[in-house]
């Protein structure tokens, strides 16, 4: 989602706080944030940094901030870029099954992007396991917010359950999603 991520996070910060909060959390950041530049690559380290800074500013837990960031990303995409969601399927299951392929295609378009990786396993009629791989541990709540918000968009009674986190060469979070 490239620069869409930062645009959504800035919008989220402005909805939950104000411009001063945005300036606070990007001050001293390890990368430059331009929430209007859609071609800007992002990485999970930057999202984690923003959540940690905002948690200090708002005196909220970083996990709560990350969860809100995840929901805000989906809300912004739905409102401003609906084809991204509509093009991945008609159901929550279709959307999630197509999620890994979408990221692979985006990497071809934006070679500088180093996105997290998604994989699907244990696919049945009413459940699947979504594996989220990143180099940044601690993104579980961001993905949970993302998944729960996408379930709402598809008007699914889907239940998102975090099963475990593993750390090897990359960090993996596994979610069980019921439809």
How would you describe this protein?
By secondary structure, the protein is an alpha+beta fold. The chain is built from seven helices and four strands; from the N terminus they run ααααααββαββ. The chain has helices at 4-16, 19-26, 44-58, 62-80, 82-86, 92-109, 140-153, and strands at residues 117-121, 127-134, 159-167, 171-178. It has a four-stranded antiparallel beta sheet, covered by helices on one side. A hairpin with a 3-residue loop joins strand 3 and strand 4 (171-178). Helix 3 (44-58) packs across helix 4 (62-80) and helix 4 packs parallel to helix 7 (140-153).
Provide a quick synopsis of the model.
The chain has 179 residues and is an alpha+beta fold. The chain is built from seven helices and four strands. The protein starts with a helix and ends with a strand.
The count of helical stretches stands at 7
Apparent shape: globular
Calculate the mean pLDDT score and round it: 89
Structural class: alpha+beta
Helix content class: 40-55%
Strand order, main sheet: write it out: 1-2-4-3
Helix and strand element order: HHHHHHEEHEE
How many E-type strands?
4
Largest sheet: 4 strands, antiparallel
Strand portion: 15-25%
Low-confidence stretches: none
Question: Using only CA atoms, what is the Rg?
Answer: 16 Å
């Amino acid at each position: 989602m490239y620069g869409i991520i930062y645009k959504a996070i800035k919008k989220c910060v402005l909805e939950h706080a104000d411009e001063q909060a945005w300036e606070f959390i990007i001050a001293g950041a390890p990368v430059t944030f331009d929430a209007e530049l859609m071609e800007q690559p992002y990485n999970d380290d930057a999202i984690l940094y923003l959540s940690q800074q905002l948690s200090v500013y708002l005196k909220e837990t970083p996990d709560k901030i990350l969860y809100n960031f995840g929901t805000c990303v989906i809300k912004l995409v739905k409102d401003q870029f609906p084809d991204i969601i509509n093009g991945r399927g008609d159901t929550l299951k279709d959307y999630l099954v197509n999620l890994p392929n979408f990221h692979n295609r985006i990497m071809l378009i934006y070679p500088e992007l180093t996105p997290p990786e998604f994989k699907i396993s244990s696919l049945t009629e009413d459940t699947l396991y979504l594996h989220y791989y990143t180099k940044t541990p601690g993104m579980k709540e961001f993905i949970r917010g993302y998944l729960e918000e996408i379930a709402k968009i598809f008007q699914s009674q889907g239940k998102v359950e975090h099963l475990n986190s593993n750390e090897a060469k990359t960090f993996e979070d596994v979610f069980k999603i019921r439809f």
